[in-house]
Design goal:
The chain is an alpha/beta fold and about 300 residues long. It folds into two domains: about 160 residues, Mur-like, catalytic domain (UDP-N-acetylmuramoyl-L-alanine:D-glutamate ligase), CATH 3.40.1190; about 130 residues, Protein-Tyrosine Phosphatase, Chain A (Alpha-Beta Complex). The protein contains eleven helices and twelve strands. The chain has a six-stranded mixed beta sheet with strand order 7-8-12-9-10-11, covered by helices on one side.
Length: about 300
């Protein structure tokens, strides 16, 4: 798949390709490239069975993308992770850059941010990607572009940066689909604890007084208890569905192991069954959220949005 993506970008004649690693970095298929810039956005405890059970171990795997004498940028990393990344940059003589909190100011209730650093200044920048967490991602993106401008002399205008951020489309990332006279849909691939927390925070900002119907499906080996604890902040009821993959968590196992507290759980045999049940209950002002694994959101997009 990585090779197909590289070939597609080549035939499309893109000026700059933004390549995201699939898992970790050091052993990822994308790590055959010789990039202009490498970036680590954030680090949390995810895929621990492969990447390691501590932030430092995961940081080491992600730092595998750092190339000799090639600039590297990090977002707001936890201190143990940043320490590892700095050490790798020093060893490889890679110029080290980091996003600083003083570089930007976010306005969560307005989903806007101000940015001022490295000769770039934006006021009330409103990215098209929805979510409080996307404001930090936007700041990191602008920081990366400033490095490309300064380090390589690439001519990237403020207008191009602003238009790019305002017209980015990324299905499944707090994707809002409005239906006249029917419940609004929100699709989000928040497949780990940090992602679910970001989803919940964004939901509370955008829809503070709107009822949340949650249809969720997850793979194995995740911090499921933390994820459901977060979801309980916006809903009292969750519809659980299995995924069409062998990696799907067993619903029976979830029912046995999770402390649901006040959450009401409804088990459904399929996404279609859950969606039909929710549609019969939800009112036109309610929000139906399909969240969790890429498998689940992808299935919904394929069967209901892209068909």
């Amino acid at each position: 798949m990585a090779a197909l993506a590289f070939d597609y970008f080549r035939h499309s004649g893109v000026d700059i390709a933004v390549i995201e690693t699939g898992l970790g970095g050091r052993l990822d298929a994308t790590n055959v490239l010789s990039p202009l810039l490498t970036v680590i956005t954030d680090i949390s405890l995810d895929h621990v069975e492969i990447l390691g059970g501590t932030l430092s171990k995961i940081a080491y795997e992600k730092a595998g993308i750092i190339k000799s004498e090639t600039p590297h940028l990090i977002g707001l990393l936890p201190p143990p992770a940043e320490k590892v990344v700095r050490r790798v940059c020093k060893k490889k003589r890679a110029p080290f850059f980091c996003l600083n909190r003083r570089d930007f100011r976010i306005f969560p209730n307005r989903l806007k941010l101000d940015f001022s650093s490295d000769g770039l200044k934006f006021d009330s920048l409103a990215p098209s990607l929805v979510g409080v967490h996307q404001l930090k991602n936007t700041a990191l993106t602008v920081k990366a572009l400033s490095i490309l401008r300064d380090f390589y002399g690439l001519k990237i205008s403020r207008t191009a940066i602003k238009e790019g951020l305002q017209h980015t489309d990324w299905p499944g990332r707090f994707q809002v689909i409005k239906n006249n006279g029917r419940p609004t849909l929100v699709l989000d691939v928040c497949h780990n604890a940090a992602g679910v927390r970001a989803f919940v925070d964004s939901y509370r900002v955008l829809y503070p007084n709107r009822k949340a119907f949650i249809i969720a499906g997850f793979v194995k080996r995740k911090e499921h208890q933390l994820m459901f604890d977060e979801l309980s902040r916006i809903t009292g009821e969750i519809y659980l569905v299995p995924l069409k993959t062998k990696r799907s968590i067993d619903i029976d196992e979830l029912m046995r192991t999770i402390n649901w507290r006040e959450l009401r759980v409804k088990r459904c045999g399929s996404l279609n069954t859950a969606y039909i049940k929710v549609l019969k209950t939800a009112g036109p002002d309610d929000i139906i959220n399909i969240i969790g694994s890429h498998y689940l959101v992808g299935e919904f997009l394929k069967n209901y949005i892209w068909k």
